[in-house]
Structure formats: C-alpha cells, structure tokens
Amino acid sequence: EPEVTQTPSHQVTQMGQEVILRCVPISNHLYFYWYRQILGQKVEFLVSFYNNEISEKSEIFDDQFSVERPDGSNFTLKIRSTKLEDSAMYFCASSDGLAGGVQETQYFGPGTRLLVL
Amino acid sequence: AQSVTQLDSQVPVFEEAPVELRCNYSSSVSVYLFWYVQYPNQGLQLLLKYLSGSTLVKGINGFEAEFNKSQTSFHLRKPSVHISDTAEYFCAVSGAAGNKLTFGGGTRVLVKP
Fold first, then answer.
1. pLDDT tens-digit series, residues A30-62
2. Which residues contact residue B64 at a Cβ distance below 8 angstroms, ignoring those fewer than 6 apart?
3. Is B43 in contact with A56 (Cβ distance < 8 A)?
4. Do B102 and A58 touch (CB under 8 A)?
5. pLDDT per 10-residue tile (average), chain B, 113 residues
6. Chain B positions in Cβ-Cβ contact with residue A99 (cut-off 8 Å)
7. Looking at the partner chain, which of A103, A105, A109 has a beta carbon nearest the beta carbon of B96?
8. Residue pairs spanning A and B at CB distance below 8 A
9. A21 and A11 in contact (C-beta within 8 Å)?
10. Averaged over A109-113, what is the pLDDT?
11. In the predicted model, what is the mean pLDDT of residues A69-93?
C-alpha cells in the first residue's frame, strides 16, 4: 500500500541553524500539507500546498518557514533559523484533494522529531 | 473558524470492555469529520471519516462513530477493545476538499488486561 515517507526520523540542531525536513508524498496525490505537534499539545496545521504554490498557511508559518516541491516526488519544509520553540514532531500529509467535490483523506507520514538546542 | 474538543485526555479501559471517546466540534460551515489513531512511535492513521450520508460510520479495527449535527458531536466507539488498541486517538474536522484539518487535543486510551 502506498504511504507517505519522511526523513530524517529525528533531527537535533542548534538554535539559529537551518533545517530541511523532507517528505515523499503518495505519488498520485495533488495536495500536500505540513503539521506539527509540540510535545503534549495539539496537532497544528502549518501549511497546505497545491499546484506548486501555497494554498493556505497558519499564523505559525511565518517568514522563517518555507516549503518547496523541488522535483516530482519530494516536498520539503525549511526552517531558516531555528528557535527553541520549533522543537516538535513535524508531520507531512498528502491527499487526492477534490473527488466529485468530496474531501479526500489526508494520509500522514510517520513524522520527524525536531529538537532545537 | 473551526475548533474541536476532546473531552477526555485519558481513558483507561479493561480488555474486552467497550470504549467511547467523545468529540465535539464547532464550525460555521458544513464539516467533514475524521478520527485518526496514533500508535506509539508511529504517524497518524485514519480510522474513519464522515463526509455525508448515513450518520453512523464504520471504520477499521471494529471502530464506529456517529455524527450528531444537533449536538455537534462525533463520538467514537468500540464494543470490545484489545490490548492492541492502546494508542492516542485524534478527532479532526475540515471544511472542504483540500482544506486543513483542525485537530482536537487527543485522547490517550490505555487498555489493561
């Protein structure tokens, strides 16, 4: 069964450093998402991406964050200058999007646990 | 704006007993509702979803949920749990295709032998 994959599974970085989190969505999916979960808190939406551009972003997704689909398979989240409060589990998800006007399921990857020291 | 409330942060339950996880939502538009499960050290896996039609939705692993529009609820139930159902369960809502999911705080289910 196709699945969303994410690398690395764990990342430790120093405050102020740049990190890139990588995701390979399911191959025929059109919508891509990043969410994060700070330890002990809710899963929060960061950004959605469709047709090579951001379709929606949350207040969390400020200028320090960017997303890219550099080729036909990868979807990346870059944090330019990490802060302590960026420590969280980051989940990538993908979906078919519209199918007869009906919401399609978002399939989640296993996550990347980011620790900023 | 949408929001989701999961009333129980933790639910201990004995094996083979029934379990109900409560979820209430608020939204100014029509919603799609989802339950996801997160097993230890794994990602989020879809259990079931309500898009339209019958308000009783059956999912994987024997779970079902009932959409109640008047009470703005989408409670998850299983008549008899197994040890393997120990996990965290998340209720989520979205407004339309391609839209973000808004999650509840999660309910941790611990199944005891």
1. 889 999 999 888 899 999 998 899 999 999 999
2. B48, B56, B57, B58, B76, B77, B78
3. no
4. no
5. 91 97 87 90 88 89 94 96 96 79 95 95
6. 97
7. A103
8. 65
9. yes
10. 95
11. 94
